[in-house]
Specification:
The complex is a heterodimer of chains A (274) and B (323). Chain A is mainly α. Chain A has one domain: MetI-like (MetI-like fold, Orthogonal Bundle), CATH 1.10.3720.10. Chain A contains 13 helices and no strands. In chain A, α3 packs across α11. The two termini of chain A are 39 Å apart. Chain B has a single domain, classed as MetI-like (MetI-like fold), CATH 1.10.3720.10. Chain B is 72% helix and 0% strand. In chain B, α3 packs across α16, α6 runs parallel beside α11 and α11 packs across α13. The longest helix of chain B is centred in the last third of the chain and has 31 residues. The two termini of chain B are 14 Å apart. The chains are: A mainly alpha (274), B mainly alpha (323).
């Protein structure tokens, strides 16, 4: 490393402090998740979980597993549906230049800007009529609206980079449009599929507004509602609440550790987080 | 430039290609009679947009134009009310304060997120050992589910046992009822929202900084410019386009914020931290007797605000592409 002068390490020190400050609430969440009930209201609060307890995590295992399972299923469903809808569209917009394509891209850009509360109320009215409130497919469908416009825009941006020669070679080999898409475009678009899948999963996993409006009264409630009920019931077991929060953060942590490259791609490629 | 402008560059490129095939284009392209068949690939997403964006939006607008009761919501047949719901909302004594909260929440969040994000971006742009790793770690608050961040902040700001009050006590400041006093609740949710928004500002501004050619700094260093002069003379003007886009994206996002406020304070106490988004939710879902009409009316006002910001964003971004 060329910059490893004392001055550069001094900056690393400052960087560590700044990062520590930014991440302190995350540390505090972890700390509280291990704190015993009787220490919870200690004054001053314990900065480290000395006399730590696993009661909080025991409560998660006892009470939150169904919620976690629902979130997981909803996340997988959202990913599958999002990729299935958005990948062909991205391919068409990037490579086939259909008439009206730019107009569709514009609509997608606008669609990202609609506040969630509005979609939730509209979905609620529709689902009530159709009788699909509190169902898994209903929640999955609603959650895909968080990801589909973003996914199409990401796929379009990435697939524009596929060399035309590659696609023409496939046509020369006698591949049809569908076959070209399936056996050439999709395999070389692995990175964008990973990026889209990660974000689609994370957003559906994190969704609160659709969950609370469309699934709040049923058997299929995701983990965000699990935490919300804990808080709402005036539960004073903050170690259990924070332990659930820690568990609910695992997908985000995994995402950052395994796929940091894709995360920055996603952030900078024009995402508006809901 | 690897930034937010990427996607709409494509939009514009296709616009050019689809409307006018340049004379020098390859013959295979120019002769192709029509590309309508490409809509085969677009059909699923188009049907999807119609069914799951346009239709809910339509239902939402319809909600705001009729007088719904719980009964007519389920069975249909609510009488047409024209703009009555809008009148109800606009003349509600809560409208003024709520709009003010929305503006204050948005403006304060943007100002702090942007300033802190910019400072961190400048700092991390200096490339020191571990800078990449630390920059990635700072993304964590942005990736966490909002309910996780909101409940963590609720406990940090708890009046009796929160760490923030304990820390204030150490330096001799009286405990503040962050979430339970009307004077502080809005500040509390702004603090949490700023924390969540900093990483996004950092990442986008950082990518903007990377696009500034290093020669410019070297030249000014030869001229003997100080760091502060370099910032105002080079960085700030060259970063203006990216800054504008960051702020507008932040605006669109902040107008939508609902989860954090609802989870931390439910818009209270006594509506002291209510914004348009939480008010709309409260009317529709937060009370025993839902008032979908007025709730939807507020939602539509929110859409108008978001769309103005959105169109402004698209306009500015296109103009920058054309430069």
């Amino acid at each position: 490393m060329t910059t490893s002068t004392p001055r550069a390490w001094w900056k690393t020190g400052v960087g560590l402090v700044l990062t520590g400050l930014m991440l302190f609430p995350v540390y505090w969440m972890i700390n509280v998740s291990f704190t015993r009930d009787q220490d919870m209201r200690a004054s001053p609060p314990h900065l480290f979980p000395t006399n730590g307890t696993l009661d909080g995590y025991r409560a998660v295992l006892d009470q939150q597993l169904p919620y976690l399972g629902t979130s997981f299923l909803v996340g997988l469903g959202t990913v599958a549906l999002t990729v299935a809808l958005a990948a062909p569209a991205g391919y068409a917009l990037a490579k086939l230049r259909p008439p009206g394509g730019p107009a569709l891209s514009f609509v997608l850009l606008i669609a990202q800007m609609i506040p969630g509360i509005i979609m939730a109320m509209g979905f609620y009215a529709i689902y009530l009529t159709l009788g699909v409130l509190n169902t898994l497919p209903g929640l999955i469908l609603a959650d895909t609206t968080l990801a589909v416009p973003f996914a199409v825009l990401i796929f379009t941006a990435f697939m524009s980079g596929i060399p035309d020669e590659l696609l023409q070679a496939a046509v020369v080999d006698g591949a049809g449009r569908l076959r070209t898409f399936w056996s050439v475009v999709l395999p070389v678009s692995r990175n964008s599929i990973v990026t889209v899948s990660l974000f689609a999963f994370l957003w559906s996993w994190s969704d609160f507004i659709f969950a609370s409006t469309l699934a709040g009264g049923g058997d299929y409630q995701p983990i965000t509602l699990g935490i919300y009920h804990y808080i709402g019931n005036n539960n004073q077991q903050w170690n259990a609440i924070m332990a659930t929060a820690v568990v609910a953060s695992i997908p985000a942590a995994v995402l950052l550790i395994l796929a940091q490259r894709y995360v920055s791609m996603g952030v900078t490629a024009g995402a508006v987080k809901d | 430039m690897p930034s937010t402008t990427e996607t709409s560059t494509d939009v514009r490129d296709q616009g050019g290609a689809a409307t006018a095939v340049p004379p020098g284009a390859p013959p295979s392209r120019a002769r192709r009679p029509s590309r309508w068949w490409a809509w085969g690939f677009l059909a699923p997403v188009t049907i999807y947009l119609a069914a799951f964006y346009a239709y809910p939006l339509y239902r939402h607008v319809e909600l705001s134009l009729r007088e719904y009761t719980v009964r007519s919501f389920v069975q249909g047949g609510a009488p047409f009310a024209g703009l009555d719901n809008y009148r109800t909302v606009l003349t509600d004594p809560a409208f003024g304060p709520t709009l003010t909260h929305t503006v204050v929440f948005t403006a304060a969040s943007l100002a702090f997120q942007f300033t802190i994000g910019m400072a961190l971006a400048l700092f991390f742009h200096q490339h020191f050992p571990l800078s990449r790793t630390l920059r990635a770690l700072i993304l964590v608050p942005w990736l966490l589910p909002l309910i996780v961040s909101a409940s963590t902040w609720s406990w940090l700001l708890n009046s009796d046992s929160g760490l923030v009050n304990a820390a204030l006590g150490v330096v001799g400041i009286d405990a503040v009822n962050w979430l339970t006093s009307p004077g502080w609740s809005l500040t509390s949710v702004i603090i949490a929202n700023v924390w969540i928004g900093i990483p996004f500002n950092l990442v986008v501004l950082y990518s903007g900084l990377q696009a500034i050619p290093t020669e410019m700094y070297e030249a000014s260093a030869l001229d003997g410019a100080t760091g502060w002069q370099r910032f105002w003379g080079i960085t700030f003007p060259l970063l203006r386009p990216v800054s504008l886009i960051t702020l507008l994206l932040g605006l669109i996002y902040t107008l939508k914020v609902f989860d954090i406020i609802w989870i931390m304070t439910k818009g209270g106490p006594t509506s002291s931290s209510a914004t348009l988004a939480t008010w709309s939710y409260r009317l529709g879902f937060g009370n025993l007797l839902p008032e979908f009409g007025p709730g939807a009316a507020i939602g539509n006002l929110l859409i108008v605000l978001a769309l103005i910001a959105g169109l402004l964003y698209i306009r500015i971004e296109r103009r920058q592409q054309l430069r």
